[in-house]
C-alpha cells in the first residue's frame, strides 16, 4: 500500500494532544460509540474503511488526512 498518511484529528479532545498522529493510532478511534468519524468528508465506520480510503488515488500521496469526531445524541 505504500506509506500511510498522518492524521490531523479534531474533536473529543484529540486536538489537545497536538499536531499529527500516526495512521496506526486510528485503530483506537471511537468508531460507532455515538461518534461519527469523518475523514476528508467521508463517514468512516472502522479502521479497515479508513485504510481503504487512504489507498484511493485521490488520497494515496497525501501527507495528512483531516479527521473530525462529531458526537451525536440519540433519543429524545
Architecture overview:
There is one protein chain. A hairpin with a 2-residue loop joins strand 3 and strand 4 (about 40-45). This protein has one domain. A 5-stranded mixed β-sheet has the order 2-1-5-3-4, with helices on one face. The longest helix is centred in the C-terminal third of the chain and has 9 residues, at about 45-55. It has helices spanning about 45-55, 55-60, and strands spanning about 5-10, 20, 35-40, 40-45, 65-70. It is an alpha+beta fold and about 80 residues long. The termini are far apart. About 15% of the residues are buried.
Major sheet: 5 strands, mixed
Q: Rg to the nearest angstrom?
A: 12 Å
SS field, number of helical segments: 2
Poorly predicted sequence stretches spanning 5 or more consecutive residues: none
What percentage of the residues does DSSP assign to strands (E)? 25-35%
- Give the N-to-C terminal Cα separation: 44 Å
Q: What kind of oligomer do you see?
A: single chain
How many separate domains? Answer: 1
How many strand segments? 5
* Average pLDDT number: 87
Strand order of the largest sheet: 2-1-5-3-4
The shape is: globular
Helices and strands, in N-to-C order? EEEEHHE
Q: What is the helix content?
A: 10-25%
Structural class category:
alpha+beta
Amino acid at each position: 500500500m505504500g506509506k500511510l498518511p498522518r492524521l490531523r484529528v479534531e474533536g473529543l479532545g484529540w486536538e489537545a494532544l497536538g499536531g499529527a498522529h500516526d495512521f496506526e493510532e486510528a485503530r483506537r478511534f471511537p468508531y460507532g460509540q455515538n461518534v461519527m468519524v469523518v475523514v476528508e468528508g467521508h463517514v468512516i465506520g472502522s479502521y479497515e474503511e479508513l485504510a481503504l480510503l487512504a489507498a484511493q488515488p485521490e488520497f494515496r500521496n497525501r501527507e495528512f488526512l483531516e479527521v473530525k469526531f462529531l458526537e451525536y445524541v440519540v433519543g429524545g
